[in-house]
Amino acid sequence: MVDSSKRPYRSEARTAAAEATRRKVLEAGRSLFSRKGIDATTIAEIATRAGVSEATVYATVKSKSGLIEALMQDALFGPRFQAAQEQVQEEPDPVRRIALSACVARAIYEGESAGLSLLMKASAFSPELRKSQDAFEALRRKMQAERIDALFKARRARPGLTRETAGTLLWMFTGREIYHKLVHESRWSPQEYEAWLQRTLVDALTLEKP
C-alpha cells in the first residue's frame, strides 16, 4: 500500500525540479538570444546550453516563440509590476487610477531594461520578437481599457474625448518609445519619468489636475 502522506512531498519535489529546469531553459535562451539573436539561435543550442534534451525544451516552452513570451512575462510582469497593478486595482478614484498608470509603465520598462535590453538589441528585426511585442501591446491596451471605462462611467473624462481617443492616448503616452527617449536617451531618472507621466496623463485625459 502506498503511503499517501509522502505524496505532497513528492509533488513539491517535482514542482521544484520543473521550476529549476524552466529557469535553466529561460536563462540559456536569454543568453543565446542576447549574443546571437533570436533567429540565429536553435532549440538544439538552447538545450545544450541548459544541459537538457531538446524534448525537455519543447516540453517546457513549446517553441522559440514560447520561450520569448516566457522571458517577456518574467521581465515585464514581475513583482514590481504586480505591486503597481494591485495598487491600481485597489484605487477607487478613476482619476487617480489613470495617474497610477505611470507607476505601472515604469515598472514594466524598468523590468524590460534590466532583463531584456541585450536580447532586444540583438534581435531588433526578428519576426519572432515582433510577434511577441505585438501580443504584449494588445495585452497592455486590454489592461488599460478598464481604467478608461471607469473614467467615463464616473464622468471624469476630459470634455471632447471619446473612449477610443482616450484609450489611444493612454496607450501612446505609456508606450516603450517615450520611456526610451526620456530615460535612456535624455537621461531622465525613472522617478522624473513617472512624475512627468502622471501629470501628462491627468492633464490629457481627465477633468482634474494631479
From TrEMBL:
Source organism superkingdom: Bacteria
InterPro entries: Homeodomain-like_sf (IPR009057), HTH-type_TetR-like_transc_reg (IPR050109), HTH_TetR (IPR001647)
Pfam family, one: TetR_N
Alphabetized GO MF terms: DNA-binding transcription factor activity; transcription cis-regulatory region binding
Record key words, sorted: DNA-binding
SUPFAM superfamilies: Homeodomain-like (SSF46689)
Residues annotated as domain HTH tetR-type: 19-79
Ranges annotated as DNA-binding: 42-61
PROSITE patterns reported in the protein's UniProt record: HTH_TETR_2
Identification of the protein by name: TetR/AcrR family transcriptional regulator
Gene3D superfamilies the UniProt entry points to: Tetracycline Repressor, domain 2
